[in-house]
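Lab notebook page, bench 4
Experiment: in silico fold of construct C2
Operator: M.H.
Input chain length: 59 residues
Purpose: comparison with the prior construct
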Amino acid sequence: MPTGYRTVLVLHDVEGYRHEEIADLLGVSVGTSKSQLFHARRAVRTQLGASMGKGLTDA
C-alpha cells in the first residue's frame, strides 16, 4: 500500500482525525484525503480477501 494511503488510513480510522485535519497536516486537499482513504480501505479489503481465500469485495 502506498505511504500516502497508509498515512491517511491510520490518521483517520485509527487516530480519529477528520479529513480537514488530515489535509492540513499533510498539505493536501480534503478531496485528496478522502480519495486516499477510499483507496486504502479498498486495498485492505483486497488483502484480507486474498489472505482468507475469498473476495470480501463481493459482499
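Observations: The radius of gyration is 13 Å. DSSP finds three helices and no strands in the chain.
Next step: discuss at group meeting.
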